[in-house]
């Protein structure tokens, strides 16, 4: 039961972080577009942003499926 509760907390926390990132992205899109369009080292910001979104969303999704008991099939030895 404790394991399921821990997984549930992770799902909620990562879900809130994911939602917060999307809200921030949409609420501040003008400022974000301004920074992304500056060139130079600022050109890496879209890549960094996509990486952050990918990590957060991937963590949320993994915890979501674990919470419901979905895990990858384990390979059997000898096959």
Using DSSP, what is the number of strands?
Answer: 0
Q: Termini separation (Å)?
A: 34 Å
Write down the secondary-structure element order.
Answer: HHH
Overall mean pLDDT stands at 91
In helices, the fraction of residues equals over 70%
Low-confidence stretches: none
Largest sheet at a glance?
none
Strand content: under 5%
| Domain module count | 1
Instruction: Identify the overall geometry.
Output: elongated
Q: Count of helices?
A: 3
- Radius of gyration from the alpha-carbon trace, in angstroms: 18 Å
> Pairing-aware structural class of the strands and helices?
mainly alpha
Task: Report a brief summary of the structure.
This protein is 72% helix and 0% strand.
Q: Can you tag this structure with a few keywords?
A:
about 80 residues, mainly alpha, 3 helices, elongated
Topology, please?
Blueprint: H1 2-27, H2 29-36, H3 45-67
Care to describe what's here?
- The protein has 79 residues and is mainly alpha-helical.
- The chain has one domain (2-64).
- 72% of the residues lie in helices and 0% in strands.
- The protein contains three helices and no strands.
- It has helices spanning 2-27, 29-36, 45-67.
- Helix 1 (2-27) runs antiparallel to helix 3.
């Amino acid at each position: 039961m404790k394991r399921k509760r821990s997984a549930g907390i992770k799902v909620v926390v990562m879900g809130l972080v994911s939602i917060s990132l999307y809200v921030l992205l949409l609420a501040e899109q003008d400022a974000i577009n301004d920074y992304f369009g500056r060139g130079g080292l600022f050109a890496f910001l879209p890549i960094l942003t996509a990486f952050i979104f990918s990590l957060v969303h991937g963590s949320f999704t993994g915890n979501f499926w674990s919470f419901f008991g979905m895990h990858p099939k384990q390979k059997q030895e000898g096959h």
